[in-house]
Amino acid sequence: MDRNESVKILQENTGYWDIIVIGGGATGLGVAVDAASRGYKTLLLEQHDFAKATSSRSTKLVHGGVRYLQQGDVSLVIEALHERGLLIQNAPHLVSNQAFVVPNYEWWNGPFYGVGLKVYDLLAGKLGLGPSKILSREETLNQIPTLEPQGLRGGVIYYDGQFDDSRLAINLAQTIVDLGGTPINYMKVTGLLKSKDLIDGVVATDMESGENYEINARVVINATGIFADSIIHMDQENTPQLVKPAQGVHIVLDKKFLPGDSAIMVPHTDDGRVLFAVPWHDKVIVGTTDTPMNNAVLEPHPLKEEIDFILRHAAKYMSHDPSPGDVLSIFAGLRPLVNSPDTKNTSKISRSHHLQISESGLVTIAGGKWTTYRKMAEDTINQAAIVAGLNESDCTTDNLRIHGWLKNVDRSDHLYVYGSDIVNIRNIIKEQPNLDTPLDERLPYLKAEVIWAARNEMARTVEDVLSRRTRALLLDARASIDMAPEVAELMASVLGKDKKWQSDQVNQYKKLAEGYLLT
Ligand SMILES: Cc1cc2nc3c(=O)[nH]c(=O)nc-3n(C[C@H](O)[C@H](O)[C@H](O)COP(=O)(O)OP(=O)(O)OC[C@H]3O[C@@H](n4cnc5c(N)ncnc54)[C@H](O)[C@@H]3O)c2cc1C
Fold first, then answer.
1. Residue 371 Cβ contacting ligand 1 at under 6 Å
2. Ligand 1 in contact with 429 (CB < 6 A)?
3. What 3-state DSSP class applies to 270?
4. Residue nearest to atom 9 of ligand 1 (CA)
5. Among the listed residues 406, 391, 367, 394, the one whose alpha carbon sits nearest the alpha carbon of residue 167
6. How many CA atoms lie within 13 A of 103 on its CB side?
7. Using a 6 Å cutoff on CB, does residue 333 contact ligand 1?
8. pTM of the predicted model as reported, rounded to 2 decimal places
9. By the 8 A CB rule, do 507 and 485 touch?
10. Given the CA of residue 52, which atom of ligand 1 is nearest to it?
11. What angle do CA 366, 91, 458 make, to 5 degrees?
């Protein structure tokens, strides 16, 4: 996958694309994979990097959502559990089975969650990941030795999926290319083209070169998440707000706070929220919050009350209380929740997706979850193909292998996330053995990965490499700042950039990463 190649394809193609997708997060990438797999000529335009916005800031769970079961949203849970099963089959290198323990400090909670999780197992049917089980106090502490022992009565263990969100996004972009489609990052849509009141394309600006393009298509799909309204307003002014952002924050801690393989899930904190502490890439992610916000921004910032909430509750359930100085990184994301005028509390807004088609033919897909991105894409292309008058073609993504597909990867080697591409990284190392060196001793990432990302994964900036090709920014923000100069130098050797570019990149990255530090 090469950005220059994609831009060249765009420039050489003067006719109509079948489908233009705006937005390169989970939703847009999934939609473009579906479109390309049906043989439609597909272009995806992303204003920044793939997964820059919400899709790199999730809790990293491929899940049915025990919480939605609690809220009575059974059809969403059934759909998400089905999708969870498909994703494990289609991207086994990135999605794994994760055990969760629900600790029980109140005598009535044990049987309640025991029964609820049995229903969860049943709803998963054949695609279940393992039966849930009620645990004694001793068994609970065996699973999670650092759980707060005071007042603990027992627990329940159940299974869900876990994944690496931005790595899956990059693999989806590569899948689009494998299927003959064209994804381009750093290409912002600034307007819509219309002919006889019907949308027939977009105006886009290359954010690197500044060049503007008018690009025609039979149908345009708006998959811009929290930014959906900005595209809708290009079509029709004065429409009521469709998407309401709701912020969720996570902190990342050292593995010593949760040393085993099991995660902690607290379904109901004392103020009614869900809290997860999940092992991820040899660290622990703790979150999250649900704070209604007014503005859609690419780089959201955690609020003080969100940080206090997470630290206070982490201390409640972990025997070592984490302090601000223990936080390796803190990150915030904005959920694209579809607005319902009478819902004040965003945690009650449905997580199921919303598809709408405007009078001029703009197809907007919003809401949903990472877990259900494939189903959202299927529904979207079923409708979009009709709007565009394209030849009918069935969806086949339920068993489409995603780029990098590899079964039984060795998760003790951090390169496992590349799946079948591991061999290509090993080949880079064979050619240049000096690249087999970690960028920093606090994280496992090798110099060879930077070369691979710049050559083959459309990484264009130091942030692309440290935040979304590797996960250094989320795993240890301070270490990632120290890695930036070397990353810039390695990228410059691939992209043909000068010293000034390198120092600008390092300065920009440092400024960004400081927002991920707590102390
Ligand atoms: C805190 C948190 C935790 C979550 N945890 C989970 C979880 O564990 N499991 C799960 O299944 N789901 C989870 N989710 C939900 C999931 O992350 C989102 O539903 C999903 O990532 C939304 O993807 P999207 O593509 O719709 O939006 P985005 O990822 O925001 O993508 C939209 C893209 O459109 C681009 N764009 C906007 N305007 C333009 C333009 N004019 N031109 C070109 N491009 C444009 C943006 O740059 C952006 O990249 C979580 C969400 C949050 C916030």
1. yes
2. no
3. coil
4. 61
5. 406
6. 29
7. yes
8. 0.96
9. no
10. 49
11. 70
Expressed in angstroms and rounded, the spacing between residue 144 Cα and the centre of ligand 1 is 32
Ligand 1 mean position to 321 CA, how many Å?
31
Of ligand 1's listed atoms, the one at least distance from the Cα of 55 is: 21
56 Cα to the center of ligand 1, angstroms: 7
Of 289, 370, 372, the one to substitute when testing ligand 1's pocket (max ligand atoms within 8 A of C-beta) is 370
Kindly state if the Cβ of 176 falls inside 6 Å of ligand 1. Answer: no
CA nearest neighbour of 311 among 282, 287, 280: 287
Handedness of CA 255, 256, 262, 263 (dihedral sign): negative
HSE (CB half, 13 Å, CA atoms) of 515? 16
CB 331, CB 477: distance < 8 Å: no
Q: Rounded CA gap, 72 and 303, in Å?
A: 30
- Whether 273 is in the pocket of ligand 1, judged by its Cβ within 6 Å, is no
Q: Is the CB of 23 under 6 A from ligand 1?
A: yes
Decide whether any atom of ligand 1 lies within 6 Å of the 278 Cβ. no
Give CA–CA dist 400/172, Å, rounded. 11
Residue type, 403: H
Which residue is associated with the tokens 């990255």?
Answer: 509
| Backbone φ and ψ of 204, nearest 5° | -135, 150
Q: Is 161 in the pocket of ligand 1 (CB under 6 A)?
A: no
Cα(336) to centroid of ligand 1, in Å? 7
* Residue 248: CA count within 13 A, CB half-sphere: 23
Rounded distance from Cα 468 to ligand 1 centre (Å): 13
226 lines ligand 1 (CB under 6 A): yes
> What is the radius of gyration, based on Cα positions, of the chain?
23
Report which protein residue has its CA nearest ligand 1's atom 31.
25
Helix and strand numbers, DSSP H then E, in the chain: 16, 20
For the chain, 519 residues long, give each residue's pLDDT as a single digit of tens: 999 999 999 999 989 999 999 999 999 999 999 999 999 999 999 999 999 999 999 999 999 887 777 777 788 889 999 999 999 999 999 999 999 999 998 766 656 677 788 888 888 888 888 899 999 999 999 999 999 999 999 999 999 999 999 999 999 999 999 999 999 999 999 999 999 999 999 999 999 999 999 999 999 999 999 999 999 999 999 899 999 999 999 999 999 999 999 999 998 887 778 899 999 999 999 999 999 999 999 999 999 999 999 999 999 999 999 999 999 999 999 999 998 654 555 555 555 889 999 999 999 999 999 999 999 999 999 999 999 999 999 999 999 999 999 999 999 999 999 999 999 999 999 999 999 999 999 999 999 999 999 999 999 999 999 999 999 999 999 999 999 999 999 999 999 999 999 999 999 999 999 999 998
Q: Which residue has the tokens 């876990």?
A: 162
Cβ of 65 below 6 Å from ligand 1:
no
Kindly give the residue spans of alpha helices, DSSP state H, lying in 125-180: 137-143, 165-178
